[in-house]
Structures are given as structure tokens and as C-alpha cells.
Amino acid sequence: MAAVDHAYDVEDDLDLISPRMRMQKHEDWLISTSLEPLRDSFEDSSFQQLLHQFAAEHAQDFLALWPDGSHPLLWTLRHQEYKELFESQLEKTLADIGMTRDSFQSAMRHLQDVRASLGDMQADLDSFLKSLTAADEYNAFLQVMLTEAYKQQEAGLVSAAVPDSQQIEVTVPSGHGGYAAASVPVEYQGYQYDVPIPCGYSAGMSFHVSVVVPPPN
């Protein structure tokens, strides 16, 4: 019987792993040269100030909640305007780093496909995706706008001038850990309201919110 050759050749192993190593270097490069600048642009203080200004200017459109989960059409229009701020920031940053929209979308698809193998870079990808999709989530947008409306009402900067609205006090229930886009169901005069919890409020804290109470038929 011929002897089996068990000789170990390190070059064989390098040949096997080098494609993966080369791919990992490519993915690291994509994240450091593309995603990190994009994430930083969304977190930039001037862009954050722009978002704050938008919320402050349009808070009066969000002074009262409607029953049974219904929302005025204006809220949808404001959400579209809010998303356009993010879209403009994305386009500007892509131009600054010399990346086309097609290249960006291709890079995103690839990184999402290999997300599980990114190691420490996975957190960078997740952070970027959170920033990128922040504007698309309607409930998160609603929380931003209603939080600003609550603040302005508490400070006496605006008054709830919405017809048929009444102000009620809401206490954040136990178990709420301050996570984003959380809400609490409230019943008032036979109507159900889904009240978003303002940013920074935790269990036991109270805030005031105006709700629209439809007139009796």
C-alpha cells in the first residue's frame, strides 16, 4: 500500500484563506471610506441642527393626537419633507466622497449579505443603517415631532389651538426602558389614543398631551 503523504504545506493554507482575507480587507475599506463618512455626515452637528430647526418650525402641526390611530394628511406630508432632508444630505455626502448612488447601493447590498462575517465592523454597519433608516420610520419621526410639540407646549411657546382638543396628563408606565419610538395606549372619553412617549421620559414620569375628542353625532 502506498504511503499517504501527510506533509503540511503552509502555502496551501495561505492559498485557501487569502481570498477571504482579501475580501475582508475590501469590506473594511468599504466601511472606512464610504459608510463611516456617510454616518458621520448624518451625525454632524450642522445637520442635526437642521433637523432640530425643522422640528421646531413644524411642531405646531403636531399639537394634538387623533383617536383610533388616525393621523392628519399633513403629518404624512411633513414626514416626506423630513425624509428629503436626509436624502439631500446623502446625495451631498456621496458627491463629497466621489461615490455614485449605484456604487453605494451595490456596496450596501454586499455588506448586508456578509454582515455576519464582519466581526468588529458589524457594529459600524449597524450604526450606519440606523442613521440611514432613521427618517424612513414614520413612528420614529412622529416621536421626534411630538416630543418637540410637547416641549413647546410645556414652555408656553404654543397653545393647542386644534378644534375639539383637550389636554390630558399621561404617565409613562412601568417597564418602559426609554427605547425609541415607544408609545402607550390611552383611553379618554371612550376613544383610544396611541400616545408616543417623548424622548428622555422613563417609567413614572408624566407629561401633558392634547387629544382631539370628536363632537357627538
UniProtKB/TrEMBL annotation:
Domain BART span(s) in chain numbering: 37-152
Protein biosynthesis recorded as keyword: no
Pfam family, one: ARL2_Bind_BART
Location in the cell: Cell projection, Cilium; Cytoplasm
Cellular component GO terms, alphabetical: cilium; cytoplasm
Keyword tags: Cell projection, Cilium, Cytoplasm
InterPro entries, sorted: BART_dom, BART_sf
Keyword Cytoplasm recorded: yes
Protein name: BART domain-containing protein
Organism encoding this protein: Symbiodinium necroappetens
Organism classification: Eukaryota, Sar, Alveolata, Dinophyceae, Suessiales
